[in-house]
Design a protein that fits this description.
6-stranded parallel sheet, 665 residues, Rossmann fold, DNA helicase-2, ATP binding, 3'-5' DNA helicase activity, alpha/beta, 23 strands
Length: 665
């Protein structure tokens, strides 16, 4: 089989029962197949030859589908899974389709259902996150064989304790050594705040309130800990290690573990002398498809290797240039080595339907990507695809409005665009002036409560946005926020839970007679809000089982409004102004997204050296090329316009970026 038509007819006959002798055009116009509903032509026929070749690739053959940005990877994964499911011969063996986030898993599941029907995502198949799969099929049912957890009332299920969680009962699981927290102070290290890395046999510790994981050897040799153990000859590296090990074993034996523990436990179970569990899992899932394979860690690769050795076929789909999780011990070089060493058949998706050719070419200067065709057309022939903004470091907060104005002038959708930066400090500076032309933060709750009580759904959606922004900036001030989902902070993993909490909070506020009295002066309402709101939000959080940051609640009457009646003031605020506010977030937050336009903002200098400066994006040798991959991921998001922003004083940088294809604005 060689041609597009041959592949199409074979696949369509299986997926949607298309008669072999009928053309794609006739099938589309003469039948009412739900698969093509809301499409202008046959959904399968529009797939590229490369996509169809992968769908037709033998399931039993280890395969690596290298997919460039915008190549229809998710569609190909969904169609491939559906193609296999449609003729799957087993009733008790299934296909595992794995990815790394719930949102990505839901997207794939939706495609599979569209192509194969609702049975495509249920037993015997599995579509979900790799963490959920390992937990459900290995760690939860079999970990007790390794941890010796006796269970309670016949239940040997693991109880997952989140890192950073605090409770008095955790005092029973404190490591015998302390963590130097500065100024001569030391804090306890609980079993849920460290894990054993199966690759290196090192314990990685994240102290209470900390963000970084550090190896136990690094802690042992730190200046503060060296001073602490200077009069403790017995505290050798071996004793130090044993203390962490024994505490963690006790933790496991009691039936507890962390998310980080799950992978290590799974690896040890499958790596044991008795490979019965490995054989069972391999027989249960003869085909394992891994989306976003570039994000596989060493331990995940090792687990998959165990399954492959027992007969499972592996299909990797992803783009090695989009590996940006080194802090999770992920390396694209390990993924490539795994595929090479295990004789994977390599296939390509090299047509980018998202971006224009100049954007695709610019991405090619950041990371080696081969020949990629950019299939998107400019909205206007005269409009440049790659532009360069410059800024004065003391006027960084002006950039969002400048970018928004540029988009409006060039007929690009502000609501479908984003500003990206590496690091929350820089994001905070960009946000500093974003609300100056819109609602002030203190006005948000008033407007939200008023709009919510109208009962009009469109206005209530705006109310959720307003209250979401107020709560996020008040209680989650250090978090990156997702403006597309009611400004949901990154600390909240469930957008649905966040929205439900906001709705419950607005409902409770709307039932308080003082907070809905808009005949009050601003000064009086502010006093009532300070009195009632902390109680309302506390009760709502408790009922919704929602955890808020602990803060001292403060609220001030907006400046210059003390003697103005609320009703005379808030009706004059335009809802359109808030809606035009552009999204500002981190590079990691937009992975997998498509924008009309994207602005990537460089930090003013290289202090910190964490990949936030434009010069680091052009150096593909630094930190195994991850800094270049940051820029690659960000720069491959837009359809029509890619913009970078660097300090205006850097004339050399401006000239260098011009040579790469950026047009100064």
């Amino acid at each position: 089989m060689e041609t597009h038509e041959e592949f199409f007819h074979t696949i369509a006959a299986k997926v949607c029962n298309k008669p072999k002798k009928i053309s794609a055009e006739d099938c589309f116009s003469q039948t009412s197949n739900s698969l093509c509903r809301d499409h202008r032509k046959c959904r399968l026929h529009e797939k590229t030859l490369e996509q169809l070749k992968y769908v037709h690739q033998p399931a039993i053959e280890n395969t690596f589908l290298r997919a460039c940005p915008g190549s229809g990877k998710t569609e190909a994964v969904g169609l491939k899974a559906a193609h296999e499911i449609k003729s799957w011969p087993h009733s008790s063996k299934g296909i595992a389709v794995l990815t790394f986030t719930n949102n990505a898993a839901n997207e794939i599941a939706e495609r599979i259902i569209q192509f194969a029907g609702v049975n495509g995502t249920v037993y015997p198949h599995f579509v979900g996150t790799i963490d959920g799969w390992l937990h459900g099929y290995v760690a939860n049912p079999f970990a007790h064989l390794w941890t010796e957890f006796p269970g309670k009332d016949g239940d040997r299920s693991l109880r997952i304790i989140e890192t950073g969680y605090q409770a008095d009962w955790l005092n029973s699981f404190k490591a015998p050594t302390l963590y130097p927290s500065g100024a001569g102070k030391f804090t306890p290290i609980y079993a849920n705040n460290y894990y054993l890395d199966a690759e290196t046999d090192l314990f990685y510790i994240r102290p209470l309130g900390g963000r970084q994981w550090i190896a136990h050897t690094t802690l042992y040799n730190s200046a503060q800990f060296t001073k602490f153990r200077s009069d403790k000859a017995w505290l050798t590296t071996e004793k130090f290690y044993e203390g962490f090990r024994d505490t963690k074993l006790k933790f496991w034996k009691a039936g507890f573990c962390t998310y980080q523990d799950i992978e290590s436990l799974t690896y040890w179970i499958l790596d044991g002398n008795k490979n019965d569990v490995t054989i069972m899992l391999s027989k249960r899932f003869p085909l394992v498809i891994i989306d976003e394979c570039q994000d596989l860690s060493w331990v995940q690769l090792s687990i998959l290797k165990k399954l492959q050795e027992q007969g499972s076929a592996l299909h990797f789909i992803g783009d090695l240039n989009q590996a940006i999780y080194s802090f999770k011990k992920v390396s694209p070089y390990k993924v490539k080595k795994f595929a090479d060493n295990n004789s994977f058949t390599e296939m390509l998706l090299n047509e980018n339907f998202r971006s224009t050719q100049p954007i695709v070419d610019l991405c090619g200067t950041l990371c080696t990507q081969g020949t990629i065709a950019g299939c998107q057309k400019n909205k206007e022939d005269s409009q440049p695809s790659c532009v360069l903004f410059t800024y004065s470091p003391d006027r960084l907060s002006d950039l969002p409005q400048q970018f928004s104005d540029y988009l409006t002038t060039n007929a690009l959708d502000v609501s479908k665009s984003a500003i990206l930066a590496r690091g929350k400090t820089l994001i905070g500076k960009l946000r500093a002036g974003i609300n100056e032309n819109f609602l002030k933060n203190g006005e948000l709750p008033v407007q939200a409560i008023l709009l919510w009580n109208t009962g009009d759904w469109d206005r209530q959606k705006t109310a959720l946005q307003h209250m979401g922004k107020y709560i996020a900036t008040t209680y989650f001030s250090k978090n990156s926020l997702d403006s597309r989902n009611q400004h949901c902070p990154e600390a909240i993993t469930s957008k649905i839970q966040w929205r439900a909490f906001l709705a419950a909070l607005l409902k409770a506020c709307g039932q308080n007679s003082d907070l809905v009295d808009h005949d009050m002066l601003w000064s009086n309402w502010s006093k009532k809000f300070r009195e009632h709101f902390p109680k309302i939000i506390s009760k709502t959080a408790e009922r919704q089982e929602f955890r808020l940051s602990s803060i001292t609640f403060k609220y001030q009457c907006p400046r210059g409004k003390a003697n103005i009646r609320l009703m005379d003031d808030i009706n004059g605020v335009s809802e359109e102004q808030e809606a035009s506010n552009i999204r500002i977030t981190t590079i990691h937050q937009v992975k997998g997204e498509t924008h009309d336009a994207t602005l990537l903002v460089s930090s003013p200098d290289k202090r910190g050296g964490k990949g936030g400066h434009w010069s680091e994006w052009l150096d593909d040798s630094a930190v195994e090329g991850e800094h270049a991959r940051f820029a690659y991921v960000a720069s491959s998001r837009p359809k029509y316009l890619l913009a970078w922003a660097i300090p205006e004083s850097n004339k050399e940088g401006i000239a260098k970026l011009q040579k790469l294809g950026f047009k100064p604005i």
